């Protein structure tokens, strides 16, 4: 991994005068700073543009297509204040899913973000912290790729900017901007690659190893699946690149110091990750595999030929969103003009290339194609049709450790990085060559045709309920003791996450806390010992959720009351409340149906500020009514 070449070896000038370049470098750096700042501001502006719908009102706006994940990450950010202020366990919590708790290490708990941004969360709330991190993830990806490409791959700043703009704002990353603070952290790959390439240098091998270990630990805490994909890609790249008589001597020369730095990095990362790795794989609340169906979250082999929904082409209706598993997991959708340009670029960069350049291009091509095939999943999908009789590579590896926890579609994001690097290399060659004016016009048209249609548009948002005064003012403390169990109705679930949001906002204020039953998280309880989204449902949360989602009210009898009484005793719930406004992932909920169901169980609620509150005596309420309905035991 550490003996990979710098990508500048694929540039046109394989015989550059390095001494002259070194002597001119300080002066060039001084002249380049204004352009670097302009590039950074452009990427920051693009990040704001993508997230502008949320910035318009972080309290009342949520991503339209993945409000559940949006709320989960707000909860994690609120919990970050508890970690910093009260020394809470970063990888286990009992505040959610009472009385069992949640293994946060088995979830994407973005621990580094939660801790680093805890001051902002305390001052402004998880809502503002969420959109700030999302914006900085996107902008930081462009900035990091720009610096990486300019340092290791290309000479021209314009070429670096073009490649970085694609790498940072490619369709796959914009798709994940629908709710994912982990998978939008696309600045991680260039930063990690930068330090991996530094391992070739003979100096500072100890420092390089320590920094690499710190970066690996941080990467695991933010996006472990992305880290796995990146490490796998680098290993494959190095193996393929090394299979040449010209590159093998470089491998042998760099291997001793690189391996030594890798060992140091592994020791540092292992020390920092010992507890979270234990919790992730063997701790309470851990599980095997993933909580999602790997057969569903795959890339359609035809998707790469079309444009994404949130793009300039998509704005004009030229898109095929039906080829993605959902609006958050569309990792390809590059468009056929860009794929055609990639074929031309690969051929052109190979043409009259030296052996070193060919070795690098061969490795890049193999990685890009291999990860594209992996993203297709275990069976071929073509224009939304699954061909069960055509097994693919992922069918072989799907049960291997870590592969069994990954979603295949996301492997295409590695291919996105390969495409971005190739775009930058091709642009650098065009800028470096002495083409005639008409040839430059042709190249400009080709780049525009490939890249302009996939210019991203802002993620769509929808309205959501604001925090009730009952929670914000701390009035809830009169109805449940510290660390008691209370919840808004319906209980938090993938379909309705408001109850979890209210708790998140309370956690961000550092004071007394209450616990909630259920919740939206990944935990055990899936088929064959795998994970599932949320806690296994019980009679009571299904009853409340049905009323809220459908508006249908069941005829409640004593059997229902006995089941609800049993569930309330299991959770230890002491109070429930219904705010004046309820929202779920599909929009407003049926509040009156929910009030009627709750009233049939517990009697009339008490009006307190902007909510209706019901006190619960666990194990006693709701009481059976003599002579009414079934009277069986739960």
From TrEMBL:
Organism from which the protein derives: Winogradskya humida
Basic and acidic residues compositional bias, start-end: 17-27
Keyword Iron: no
GO molecular function: transferase activity
Segments forming domain DUF6311: 89-433
Keywords per UniProt: Membrane, Transferase, Transmembrane, Transmembrane helix
Pfam families: DUF6311 (PF19830)
Transmembrane segments: 33-55, 75-92, 104-124, 130-149, 204-220, 226-243, 255-278, 333-351, 363-384, 407-426, 438-456
Region (Disordered): 1-28
Protein name: Glycosyl transferase
Domain of life where this protein originates: Bacteria
């Amino acid at each position: 991994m550490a003996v990979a070449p710098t990508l500048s070896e694929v540039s046109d000038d394989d015989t550059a005068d390095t001494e002259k370049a070194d002597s001119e470098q300080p002066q060039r750096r001084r002249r380049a700073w204004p352009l670097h700042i302009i590039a950074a501001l452009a990427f920051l502006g693009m990040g704001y543009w993508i997230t502008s719908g949320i910035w318009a009102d972080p309290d009342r706006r949520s991503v339209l297509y993945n409000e559940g994940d949006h709320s989960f990450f707000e909860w994690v950010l609120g919990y970050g204040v508890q970690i910093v202020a009260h020394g809470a366990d970063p990888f286990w919590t009992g505040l959610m899913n009472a009385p069992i708790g949640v293994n946060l290490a088995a979830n994407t708990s973005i621990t580094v973000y939660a801790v680093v941004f805890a001051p902002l969360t305390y001052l402004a709330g998880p809502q503002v912290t969420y959109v700030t991190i999302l914006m900085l993830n996107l902008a930081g990806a462009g900035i990091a790729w720009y610096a990486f490409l300019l340092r290791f791959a290309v000479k021209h700043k314009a070429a670096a900017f073009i490649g970085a703009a694609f790498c940072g704002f490619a369709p796959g990353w914009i798709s994940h901007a629908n709710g994912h603070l982990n998978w939008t952290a696309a600045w991680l790959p260039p930063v990690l690659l930068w330090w991996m390439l530094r391992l070739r240098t003979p100096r500072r091998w100890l420092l390089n190893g320590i920094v690499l270990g710190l970066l690996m630990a941080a990467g695991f805490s933010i996006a472990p699946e992305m880290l796995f994909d990146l490490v796998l890609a680098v290993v494959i790249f190095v193996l393929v690149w090394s299979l040449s008589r010209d590159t093998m001597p470089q491998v042998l020369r760099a291997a001793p110091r690189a391996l030594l730095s890798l060992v140091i990095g592994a020791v540092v990362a292992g020390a920092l990750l010992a507890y979270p790795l234990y919790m992730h794989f063997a701790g309470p609340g851990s599980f095997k595999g993933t909580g999602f169906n790997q057969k569903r979250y795959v890339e359609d082999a035809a998707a790469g030929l079309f444009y994404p929904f949130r793009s300039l082409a998509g704005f004009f209706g030229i898109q095929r969103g039906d080829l993605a598993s959902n609006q958050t997991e569309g990792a390809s959708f590059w468009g056929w003009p860009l794929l055609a340009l990639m074929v031309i670029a690969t051929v052109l960069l190979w043409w009259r290339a030296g052996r070193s350049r060919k070795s690098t291009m061969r490795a890049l091509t193999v990685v890009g194609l291999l990860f594209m095939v992996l993203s297709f999943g275990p069976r071929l999908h073509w224009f939304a049709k699954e061909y069960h009789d055509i097994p693919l590579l992922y069918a072989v590896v799907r049960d291997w450790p870590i592969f069994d926890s990954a979603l295949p579609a996301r492997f295409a994001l590695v291919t996105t990085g390969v495409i971005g690097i190739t775009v930058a290399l091709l642009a650098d060659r065009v800028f470096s060559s002495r083409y005639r004016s008409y040839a430059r016009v042709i190249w400009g048209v080709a780049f525009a045709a490939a890249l302009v249609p996939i210019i991203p548009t802002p993620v769509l948002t929808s309205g959501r309920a604001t925090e009730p005064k009952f929670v914000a003012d701390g009035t809830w403390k009169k109805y449940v003791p510290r660390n008691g169990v209370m919840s808004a109705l319906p209980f938090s679930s993938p379909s309705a996450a408001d109850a979890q949001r209210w708790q998140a906002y309370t956690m961000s204020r550092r004071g007394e806390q209450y616990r909630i039953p259920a919740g939206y998280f990944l935990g055990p309880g899936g088929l064959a010992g795998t994970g599932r989204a949320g806690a296994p449902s019980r009679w009571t949360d299904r009853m409340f959720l049905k009323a809220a989602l459908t508006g249908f009210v069941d005829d409640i009898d004593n059997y229902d009351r006995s089941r609800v009484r049993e569930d309330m005793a299991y959770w230890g719930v002491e109070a429930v409340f219904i705010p004046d406004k309820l929202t779920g992932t599909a929009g407003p909920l049926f509040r009156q149906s929910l009030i009627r169901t709750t009233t049939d169980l517990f009697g009339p609620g008490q009006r307190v500020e902007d909510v209706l509150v019901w006190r619960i005596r666990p194990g006693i309420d709701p009481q059976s009514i003599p002579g009414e309905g079934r009277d069986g035991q739960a």
